Amino acid sequence: MTAHLPLLVFDTNILMDIWLGRDGNQATLLLELAEEKRIELVVPEYVLLEFQGTALRYVQGEKAKLGQQVRPVVNGWLRSKALGEEAADLIHEGLKRVEQRLAEQRKALPEIAKRIASIARVARHTPDVHFRGDLRHLAGAPPDRPVDGLNDCRIYEAILEIARADRANERTKIMATKDNDFDYPELKAELANLGFTIRNDLGALYGEFRGKP
Questions:
Q1: Which stretches of the chain drop beneath a pLDDT of 70?
Q2: Which of 31, 35, 75, 149 could be a cystine partner for 145, CB 3.0 to 4.6 Å?
Q3: pTM here?
């Protein structure tokens, strides 16, 4: 049974941190605590799917930046006597290494997603949850916004579904996110009534959870 353990729900950006090893691996440390059964980790199915799509678009976007921003500069250097071929060759070599690393990150994506799914409880994204998220977006209710508002509305409804299902369990319940997309007083109050708080200080969370028996 895990009902006595602290409950932690990850937003999509936390999974991106795990994949890219950002922010001092704080998210990865929390994942390891879940692996050790020190906390119960829940990931909405929608978040897991959005993570994989976001990661793929990230790789494509970074490669596009290299082609659009860096290569034209290098080609200009080739026409410069002061900079010349040597400087251009150095940048070309660096570009190859960066592209190789991006390819490696893309290749590692399925394994990362598989590891997360093996450690966390993946909360199924039901048609009802999806529909409620769409209605929230249609009404322009928080966390709707001009960019990615529909996805955030669906994720929030998925979080509410998890919170309602766990309402009877008296334990620490946290939604971890690194952005302010859910930073609305009415959302915080609604989650608080269900025993949930929103946190973005992953390092502090790790310290708190690690200290629990």
A1: 1, 77-85, 212-213
A2: 149
A3: 0.88
